[in-house]
Write a structure and sequence with these properties.
single chain; 645 residues; mainly beta; Methylamine Dehydrogenase, Chain H; 5-stranded mixed sheet; 9 helices; binds sulfanyl-(tricuprio-$l^{4}-sulfanyl)copper; binds dinuclear copper ion
Length: 645
């Protein structure tokens, strides 16, 4: 990308490694220590293609083959890992506050974090003296698709804690939209439409709430409603919602753009745990996208909080939904990359239930019964939570209580279910450490599943790492699945709590190295600068607002190792907005702006602009400095603000 900006040479090139790496990459498999997977014989000389390639070692200076997008759980962030090395490459602040980048402090990030909130939430937060929530709980990162393949545009993620979803731009690896889902409570399951492209983000409201939730009722379960939402991925507005019976857990979409499945617990529709788990069966809900879209188009909806809502509850017997019975409290919901099946994971039952998407046409047409859509039900172990795939017909299910990944074969499971008791679909059970939640394999959430690597995201690490006190890291284990046998190759400690992760081939992701100075992210700043008669990146000036004389805007730019303005003066009580443009256009040359003692800190990437607003209430000389190491004279990159009494 640097070539685009004219300097043509990156730091890697200067270090002399860039070209060599490219050459080795081109001869994939020749260099023994490069992890290439795919059953390639490694330098260690393991005999036969049946042996796993087993080499997760990516030596210094060499690049990984995959990006991993990791949920950061209740840290509220998303992390980017390189695989197979499992090196953490980047953290993307999403719902959290982040000190290094100033996420949640800058005006640009505050706008992103607050503009998609509902009016009720904005009002509530305002009363607390806040503009947005300070935390989130991320579970399910998913990359956007075109025709069932990753297209590298966006990664979406849910926030269970505050009923939001967010969109991350993969070109700059920054969050650009946050949306609160109305009429819902705690967004858990999140998956994307796969075909023809990601038009919708499908969001499950996990907790059922009374609708309207007006404080008049707590104990009447009949008033409680579950809600399934479809958000337009481009506009990040709710397109429509469906009322459902039961608590929605996870979901997944098919590869034909017709149906979405969601696992559901609490089909009993109770409000206490005893009521919720009373019945031995629950259900999975199947949504008929075309029927819902037609009703919305025809206006056959209720409008609640400005959103068109249809009634897909069991008793409504609509064409919007079907309820397929499964064992009590199912959890994971995973579509196979061949586009044929969806696996509903038992959790409280030792089995998973496999539904064939194609049978849903007949189910919705009333030609077959719900149970006729089930084509397999293999028994795998205690606590099956999530299933992933290798693209060769094998499935890998995380089994929580047994702490295992269980490899099983889909064709054999179907054969067994159809009555052939002689087949055993289970191929291998591999111990993992410990209590695995999600598991995901390379490219497995797309039609290009390549069956090389699998991660087991274990909830407990216990004795696997040096003791760091009562709070332990999680353990994300890397498993080689390229051969006939699964092989555990790496333990990866992570901070709370990667529920889920996706592994995306590097060819799908093409981030820029330097910002486009006219990126929409900076549009507000350009507009304000224009009103002030200045140009970003050129101006070093203090401008007092003509209408509100308390408001001061300070424009400056940075070029290593200096700010264009080394001092400026404001008056006590001024509301100061500092706008910094980084005019350096060199790869990896990020500056920062930190004002000592003012809760002011922001990252300013190459060719980016950023702004932050604070009250100048501390009389005297106040230093500001660049907190991002940028030059031999980085320490000297500073200036003074004088606040006059
Ligand atoms: Cu199983 Cu939230 Cu996907 Cu945790 S969820 S493990
Ligand atoms: Cu600029 Cu450090």
């Amino acid at each position: 990308m640097s070539e685009k900006h004219g300097q043509g040479v990156t730091r890697r090139d200067l270090l002399g490694t860039g070209i060599k790496v490219a050459t080795i990459g081109g001869l994939a498999g020749v260099a023994g220590r490069v992890a290439v997977g795919g059953g390639v014989v490694t330098a260690a000389g393991l005999p036969g293609a049946a042996q796993a390639s087993g080499n997760a070692d990516v030596p210094p200076g060499q690049l990984d083959e995959y990006y991993g997008f990791w949920s950061g759980g209740h840290s509220g962030e998303v992390r980017v890992l390189g695989l197979p090395s499992m090196r953490e490459l980047m953290r993307i602040p999403v719902f959290n506050r982040e000190s290094a980048s100033g996420w949640g402090l800058t005006n640009e990030s505050k706008k992103i974090l607050s503009e998609g909130l509902t009016p009720e939430t904005k009002e509530y937060l305002k009363k607390q003296g806040m503009v947005t929530f300070d935390h989130g709980d991320t579970h399910h990162p998913r990359m956007s698709y075109t025709d069932g393949a990753y297209d590298g545009r966006y990664v979406f993620i849910n926030d269970k804690a505050n009923t939001r979803i967010a969109r991350i731009r993969c070109d700059i690896m920054k969050t650009d939209k946050v949306l609160e889902i109305p009429n819902a409570h705690a967004i858990h399951g999140l998956r994307l439409q796969r075909f023809p492209k990601t038009g919708y983000v499908f969001c499950n409201s996990e907790m059922r709430i009374p609708l309207p939730n007006d404080g008049t009722n707590m104990n009447d379960p009949k008033k409680y409603v579950g809600m399934f939402s479809a958000v337009d991925a481009d506009t990040m507005k709710v397109a429509w919602q469906v009322m459902v019976s039961g608590n929605l857990d996870n979901n997944d979409s098919d590869y034909h753009g017709k149906y979405v499945a969601a696992t559901c617990y609490n089909s009993e529709e109770g409000v206490t745990t005893a009521e919720m788990t009373g019945s031995p069966t629950d259900h999975a809900v199947f949504f008929n996208i075309k029927e819902i879209e037609a009703a919305v188009k025809a206006g056959k909806v209720k409008t609640i909080s400005g959103v068109p809502v249809v009634d897909g509850r069991k008793e409504a017997k609509s064409q919007f939904t079907r309820y397929i019975p499964v064992a009590n409290s199912p959890h994971g919901c995973n579509a196979t990359p061949d586009g044929k099946y969806v696996v509903l994971n038992g959790k409280l039952s030792p089995t998973v239930t496999v539904v064939e998407w194609a049978k849903l046409d007949d189910l919705f047409a009333g030609k077959i019964a719900e149970k006729d859509c089930i084509v397999a039900n293999p028994e795998l172990g205690l606590g099956p939570l999530h299933t992933t795939f290798d693209g060769r017909g094998n499935c890998y299910t995380s089994v929580f209580l047994d702490s295992q990944i269980v490899k099983w074969n889909m064709a054999d499971a179907i054969k067994q279910y159809s009555g052939d008791k002689s087949v055993n679909p289970v191929r291998q059970k591999l111990d993992v450490h410990y209590q695995v939640g999600h598991t995901n394999a390379s490219m497995a959430e797309s039609k290009e599943a390549d069956g090389k690597w699998l991660v087991a995201l274990c909830k407990f690490s216990k004795d696997r790492f040096l003791n760091v006190g009562p709070l332990k890291p999680e353990n994300d284990q890397l498993i080689d699945i390229s051969g006939d046998e699964m092989k555990l190759v790496h333990d990866g400690p992570t901070f709370a709590e990667p529920h889920d992760a996706i592994i995306v081939h590097k060819s799908k992701v093409n981030p820029v190295e330097i910002y486009n100075p006219n990126d929409p992210l900076f549009a507000d700043l350009h507009a304000q600068a224009k009103k002030d008669g200045v140009e970003l990146g050129k101006a070093s000036v203090v401008i007092r607002d003509k209408k509100d004389s308390k408001k001061v805007r300070v424009y400056m730019f940075s070029q290593a190792p200096a700010f264009s303005m080394t001092d400026f003066t404001v008056k006590k009580g001024d509301e100061v907005t500092v706008i910094v443009t980084n005019i350096d256009d060199i790869v990896d040359l990020t500056h920062g702006f930190t004002m000592v003692g003012h809760n002011v800190c922001m990252e300013v990437g190459p060719q980016a602009s950023a702004s932050i607003t604070f009250k100048a209430d501390r009389v005297g000389v106040q230093y500001y400095y660049c907190q991002w190491f940028c030059h031999a004279l980085h320490m000297e990159m500073q200036g003074r603000m004088l606040v006059e009494a």
